[in-house]
């Protein structure tokens, strides 16, 4: 049966789906340098019941984020900055799921079936204590020698979303078909769940250089949108390319994932409320209509950025803008409920007293 693919079939699927498919060289052109701001922190606030992962970002308006200049990942030179705008990264959680939103200015570009002629994004998280941002984990082993033993401690967790087959506004990522295969792929929208030790040693969750883990799955969900799109009833694939190319606007990417996953092979980062994780974000774009390739991406930093998961009892809960519609509506609703409760008690008491008086019959009249 199709769902019971042999290991060779899984590896072929992985070879097709593994990001980015077209890898040139990941070696820097000169000595590596990094002028990072070690003080940058992203705060994932406790906001239950606020975010819907649908590519639309109105529900993120009350969430603070951080803006970053996008510099070439292999040569973080300010003179080579992505010139269409900056990347905004926001994060929240609801106590069970973590949510992320990336906002990037860019002219609309979409070619059905060709990821490299569409925008693409990735989030990367540190897993192993020795995993560096530079060289995606920094393990010095070659593809023929990197294993979970030779590169232990250099693991990074990656979610990558390429748009060539993804309909705007639709949900992609983990799905029953691919998860039943026991690996982190997504044959429908190419929102894939990976881990790696360096740029040349990375694999879909559940697959590896020496053995496969059939219990793995894609833990991510995600959607995308562009501000130039006009959607009245929802797009389908026949609507591709969904808008005219070259229109100015902004890309929006939304992701969600459980704070904790069932991974037991060091392939997923684990998030804990009250603690910090290390994260980075990358962006690929077909500039001047030319397809991008794997190493030609921009990054928000040349080093890790701290991501703090704020607890529900933190003072961060009061950081929402005062007088927001949500706060006013909640306060008014609570006040109205208390008044209604008091009135119901008073009316009930009076009715009860009247009923007892009306039904009272003196003994002498019996």
Automatic annotation (TrEMBL):
Record carries keyword Nucleotide-binding: no
GO molecular function: heme binding; metal ion binding
Pfam families, sorted: EB_dh
Record-annotated Cytochrome c-552/DMSO reductase-like haem-binding domain positions: 57-299
Keywords carried by this UniProt record: Electron transport, Heme, Iron, Membrane, Metal-binding, Signal, Transmembrane, Transmembrane helix, Transport
Signal peptide positions on this chain: 1-25
Transmembrane regions listed in the UniProt entry: 328-347
InterPro entries according to UniProt: Cyt-c552/DMSO_Rdtase_haem-bd (IPR019020)
UniProt superkingdom: Eukaryota
UniProt cross-references to PANTHER family, sorted A to Z: CYTOCHROME C-552_DMSO REDUCTASE-LIKE HAEM-BINDING DOMAIN-CONTAINING PROTEIN, HEME BINDING PROTEIN
Name the UniProt record assigns to this protein: Cytochrome c-552/DMSO reductase-like haem-binding domain-containing protein
Lineage: Eukaryota, Viridiplantae, Streptophyta, Embryophyta, Tracheophyta
